[in-house]
Write a structure and sequence with these properties.
The chain is of the alpha/beta class. Helix content is 31%, strand content 21%. About 2% of the residues have low confidence. The chain has 14 helices and 20 strands. The strands form 4 sheets. The chain has a 7-stranded parallel beta sheet with strand order 3-4-2-5-6-1-7, sandwiched between helices.
């Protein structure tokens, strides 16, 4: 398939300079290290050349993409499927039965496998897929390979792939070194002699389209200051970062006690709860999402307008990745650091931060115009987006203007609907069948 046809399928007019350079570099014999800011389109930068490289006439997995989180795996799979090629891909990650993944794997025989290291290792140990044709390895967010506790999984995995000929490493921040186990191939040569490095990262830690502000808190406990800041920002998409899961839950509980519509996201949550929180944030039915640094990487959340650092980031890389959730592509964004008097500041912060004045008194929080409807059937039940939209219009008496994004998962689905019509809608559809199936309809909380 031609690149122009793929771009048309994705609704993209042209590749940016970084993507063009990656496409050219892929054809060279050297391995590739690609450094580019969050939101610059790195996923397409490696998927496009992979599509040209993969051969539909070869059985088995030909390329493997390793990612640090299930959300990033799902996002990459979604982009690949939207390219609408004849090639098959699937994602593998924890939080669902490996047996179900193996069954799917046997059925579709993917050419491209996308997954987290732990789950891919599990499939490799059980010999659930063959590696004879696996010649290309992509590691997204490769700097995570340097983190404690992650290297053992990566080392085991890569040692089980002896035929790798091409490695592509991607990140939004540069790593001080490339792990030895990533770069050693069958010839024993180190990666330093074999890779080409492409960097599109500006040295300044702050994106020029990002406005950075200081918010002074009179107390060491910043909860009241955060509440006033969010009230001042109003119903705009805001991602609040905390350093600990317990802090995320504490902040969420406090804001909800003040009638602030919000949700939370961290690694200790069950996968369906995490997916629901992300969906509500993406579709605008929740404007505020409180998270650990788990949300700083690999999530497809368009149009985040504000970043709030409730806790200061521990590293410059964390600061960069957090801020990278906003000011994506050509958009502008704002980042706020809540600081109490005398709080020590890391060296990587700019010397002078513009003060941000909070509204006094703050406006009361307002609910979103949209709500999220949960539907207890999904792809496994042969339910599609068109079925849901048609059902909501016919049985729920909604119009097209009352319906936003619809996302269909394997066993359930979400639909964005007008909040002012939600109660009436639920009253109409509670006893109805969708596509001949009785199921649960409720607001996703």
């Amino acid at each position: 398939m031609q690149t122009s046809e793929i771009l048309q399928n994705l609704g993209i007019e042209a590749l940016n300079p970084m993507q063009q350079a990656a496409l050219r570099a892929f054809s060279e014999p050297k391995d590739l290290v690609l450094l580019a800011p969050t939101g610059s389109g790195k996923t397409l930068a490696f998927l496009l050349p992979l599509v040209q490289f993969l051969r539909p006439d070869i059985d088995g997995v030909q390329a493997l993409v390793l990612v640090p989180s299930r959300e990033l795996a799902m996002q990459i799979e979604s982009v690949f499927k939207a390219m609408n090629t004849s090639l098959r891909a699937m994602s593998c990650y924890g939080g669902r039965p490996a047996m179900d993944e193996h069954r799917t794997m046997r059925g579709i025989q993917p050419s491209l496998l996308i997954g987290t290291p732990g789950r891919i290792n599990d499939h490799l140990r059980k010999h659930n897929f063959k590696t004879a044709a696996l010649l290309t390895l992509v590691i997204d967010e490769f700097d995570k390979c340097l983190e404690l506790g992650f290297q053992a999984q990566m080392s085991e995995l890569i040692s089980a792939l002896p035929r790798i000929e091409k490695r592509i490493l991607l990140s939004a921040t540069d790593a001080p070194e490339i792990p030895h186990f990533v770069g050693v191939g069958a010839d024993g040569a180190g990666i330093s002699s074999r890779y080409r490095r492409l960097s599109f990262i500006q040295e300044d830690v702050v994106c020029p389209r990002l406005s950075l502000y200081r918010v002074d808190s009179p107390d060491k406990d910043k909860l009241e200051t955060l509440y006033k800041l969010l009230c001042t920002l109003g119903n705009q998409s805001t991602l609040v970062f905390c350093n600990y899961r317990e802090s995320v839950e504490r902040v969420r509980d406090y804001l909800q006690s003040r009638n602030m519509p919000c949700d939370m996201y961290h690694g200790g949550m069950l996968q369906p709860d995490r997916e629901r929180a992300l969906y509500k944030f993406r579709n605008g039915s929740t404007h505020v999402l409180i998270s650990t640094d788990l949300a700083a990487r690999g999530l497809d959340i368009p149009l985040v307008e504000h970043i709030v650092h409730y806790h200061l980031p521990a590293t410059e890389e964390s600061f960069t990745h957090r801020n990278g959730r906003t000011a994506r592509q050509s958009a502008r964004g704002s980042s706020y650091l809540i600081l109490y008097d005398g709080e020590p500041q890391p060296d990587f912060l700019p010397d002078a931060l513009a003060p941000f004045v909070l509204a006094n008194p703050p406006a009361k929080p307002q609910p979103s115009l949209w709500a999220t409807l949960y539907i207890g059937k999904g792809k496994k039940d042969k339910l599609g987006r068109g079925d849901i939209v048609g059902f909501l219009c016919k049985k729920g008496q909604l119009t097209a203007a009352d319906i936003g994004a619809v996302e269909v998962k394997e066993h359930y689905a979400y639909a964005t609907v007008s909040r002012r019509k939600l109660r009436h809608l639920l009253g109409l559809i509670q006893t109805e069948k969708i596509k001949g199936m009785k199921t649960l309809f409720e607001e996703a909380n």
